[in-house]
Specification:
Layout (H helix, E strand, L loop, with lengths): L2 H4 L5 H12 L4 E8 L4 E4 L3 H25 L8 E4 L3 E7 L3 E8 L10
Antiparallel strand pairs: 1-2, 1-5, 3-4, 4-5
Length: 114
């Protein structure tokens, strides 16, 4: 089977569908979808924040990839999850797009109120 058959196309409709599905999840506060070059293509943030997050993500991705290369040379970053007391950031990069989601990290188990 050819790689093109197994790798979904990252078209505008694909990006819109991913955005819609993520936005429907409870607790999601912001979404940023970037192309393979790290340029925001769809976001719920204002333009300046989206550009700033994209730039900061690129720096973080480079450092994470360098770490992973030392640990397991053939591995690529597939998911990065960073959590603070009030927010959680999920980043899922692939070859064509990267989805960055900021969500509310309220945890009923720990009884944290945001």
């Amino acid at each position: 089977m050819q790689e093109a058959d197994t790798d979904p196309k990252r078209t505008k409709s694909y990006v819109e569908e991913v955005f819609r599905q993520v936005q429907a999840k409870p607790g999601v506060e912001d979404i940023l979808i970037m192309n393979h070059s790290g340029v925001p293509v769809k976001t719920s943030m204002d333009r300046q924040d989206g550009l700033q997050y994209a730039c900061l993500y690129d720096n973080l991705r480079e450092k994470c990839q360098a770490f992973l290369s030392k640990m397991e040379p053939a591995q690529n970053l597939t998911l990065l999850r960073v959590r603070t007391k009030y927010h959680e950031v999920l980043i899922t990069p692939d070859a064509k797009i990267t989805v960055l989601v900021v969500q509310n990290a309220k945890d009923t188990f720990l009884n944290i109120k945001g």
